[in-house]
Write a structure and sequence with these properties.
- Two copies of one chain form a homodimer.
- The first copy, chain A, is built from six helices and six strands; from the N terminus they run βαααββαβαβαβ.
- The first copy, chain A, is an alpha+beta fold and 166 residues long.
- The first copy, chain A, has a single domain, classed as 3-Layer(aba) Sandwich (Aminopeptidase).
- At the A-B interface, helix 1, helix 3, strand 3, helix 4 and strand 4 of A face helix 1, helix 3, strand 3, helix 4 and strand 4 of B.
- Strand 5 of chain A pairs antiparallel with strand 6 of chain B.
Chain lengths: 166, 166
């Protein structure tokens, strides 16, 4: 992948707690996210607790793209020391969202590029992510960035099953 | 998924440093792992460093299955505080291997069950993993355990690209 100049007036930084309402709006403004998230004011406690845990963890970062002082995109990056691939560190990308009004400006590309660059600086050998099978645009997007769809991503939801496993 | 009694004489515990040679042997004894890992004595430094990082991280655990005092299987479990899904914690499973001579004894099923139980105790709402597309047996195995293949798993290898992104 060649470097692509980021769109004008675009910057990246680690998210701060006061970004949470903007981040939550991005997470909820999504066909799948709309059913999963709770867009409320004030921000519901579970998001605040998760953000605090992420902030306190040296292996986690929430990165925001900022355009003209507004949060235009977000993703979560996790660094994972791993035994496989000769003890490599992996970077996991989750929750990539760009504001609907700002799509087509290559903000997502620049934001993921920022995450890849941070992963490289941390010595990661693999950057990985999963995207829902229904997000075919996303698959093409990541393939353009050099990702290969080599894996099947499998999920087990524990929500409604507490107590019935053991 | 209903609880399945583990095979006789099988136990689970968090891995210790002295398990590393046995763990490495399991990781290398695999069609894909054979090309990726370095099965050497002493254990190459990158594995030792990765294991130390995992041991020091309260969000990471390497779990071994032990049968008659021998390491019979291994997996790596990572707990990830996440903003999405209403600030849920996810559990990521990587590097699942069972000794070739001991396959068919449901050790893998019991080992993944142990990981799911640990994830549940940590309050995780989602357990996730990716498996190589070529591992069709593994897909069926995880589906039997209740996982759904809802996602595409995408990887970007940074190895031979250092310096060419920016």
């Amino acid at each position: 992948m060649n470097a692509t100049p980021p769109p004008d007036r675009l910057g990246f930084r680690t998210a701060r707690r006061e970004d949470l309402p903007s981040i939550l709006a991005l997470l909820a403004d999504d066909p799948l996210g709309a059913e999963r998230e709770r867009l409320e004011d004030p921000v519901p406690d579970p998001y605040v607790r998760a953000f605090s845990a992420i902030e306190a963890d040296p292996n986690q970062e929430v990165i925001v793209a900022e355009r003209d002082g507004q949060v235009a995109g977000v993703l979560q990056l996790t660094f994972i020391a791993s035994l496989t691939w000769q003890g490599s560190t992996r970077a996991l990308i989750e929750g990539v969202r760009v504001a609907a009004a700002l799509r087509g400006l290559r903000i997502g590309e620049a934001l993921v590029g920022e995450a890849i660059e941070r992963a490289r600086r941390r010595g990661c050998r693999i950057v990985q992510l999963t995207t829902d099978r229904s997000r075919t645009d996303a698959h093409r997007f990541y393939e353009r960035l050099g990702f290969k769809a080599t894996h099947v991503g499998m999920k087990l939801h524990l929500d409604d099953r507490s107590g019935d496993f053991h």
